[in-house]
Amino acid sequence: MSRSQKPHSSRRQYLKSSVKLLGFVLLLREIDIAWGAKILGVRIWPSEDYTRITLESDTPLPITQQILTNPDRLVVDVQGMELNATLKDLVAKVKPNDPYVSQIRIGQFQPGVTRLVFDLKEPVKPQLFTLDPVAEYQYRMVLDLYPSTPPDPLMELVKSSARKEKALEKSNEEIDLIAQFAIKKEKEAPKTPMAQAIPEIKEIPAPAKYKRLITIAIDPGHGGEDPGAIGSMGSKEKNVVLSIAKRLRDKIEGEAYMRPFLTRDGDYFVPLHVRVQKARRVEADLFVSIHADAFIESRAKGASVFVLSQMGASSSMARWMANKENASDLIGGINIKTQDKQVANLLLDMSTTAQIKDSLQVGNSILKQIGGFATLHKGKVEQASFAVLKAPDIPSILVETAFISNPQEEARLNDDAYQDRIAEAILKGIKEYFSKNPPVARRINS
Ligand SMILES: [Zn+2]
Description:
The protein is of the alpha/beta class. Helices cover 39% and strands 21% of the residues.
């Protein structure tokens, strides 16, 4: 600081208060015309299901949108926001493999109005909505771009597992043929020695355990705007569980009589009821939700398996966990206007008694397998009212693979070997369950 400052101190004081006053006036002006909203973050979550764009700000943003064709584009005008560097970041965040957005252009349309132009790869059905502050987030403006013709998960699954289905059919036919041949031989010549009755087969086909493929819906928890729990080293639950889920998918893919289906295969949010809907659409024989949550105490450790409860939770910890998981929609962000209330109510009205019975069985098999090498939080399957486990016709379990809030377990969750062992244990539990409870013939619409 220079020596010449002293004589001017009173003048500086005056200037200082003037600046303060000016600042105050500016602040008032901002509130008055809702201008100069501060953009805190811009995010884009591309996926086949839909691409989501989120603008997070310190005040709600008034927005209008219009769809233009030839070429397909979506124009969004945001009031009370000046173009800034954070917003400009959005342009660079568009990935070349985004299924719906080819590029975003941003410009100052009018003073105080910023225009975002989304150049589209195909026509979309946009859904625009706002979310109030929740968890770590302030106000969010969400733009979901859905394809005009949504992909059908069942069609894709049938296509991807066609070869396996054929192989299983063929193996079933061969088994039937051998059986028929043996019966015929027996009838024709009941006194012929056994050696002659057996048809000449170089290689006896592996016995088909099941008459059809068993579909396993694997549900990696959270995703996109919902990171799930975050460990002290910064690991996010959504990433860890996706990695474990993909390992399980690959293992199931390797089984001759099973096919995997992932409710999400990337970093984007899937609302809880959509996870259930997807599993029902592919007529899953089992729904396995994979998590790695935090608990209030960082000392808490061990894996757990949860199933649905119709009458309260089996422990306070189970209740706490269910409440936390059910809040996923609030954090991940859903457009409540489009929620299919009818479907939701229909699901709630159907009895889940049989489902819970089966879920407990498969849950126990998996818990036993995990307990073979990892710490268990409790030696039995726990129950609580998890929204994602409410499919009335599909046994549904939720596996908490470990506590990401426990530093030791966080390290383990990031370990390839541990992830692989967890996936292997889940697979073994699933196989054990189905060997005791072979699936019945296909339901309708197959
Ligand atoms: Zn979770």
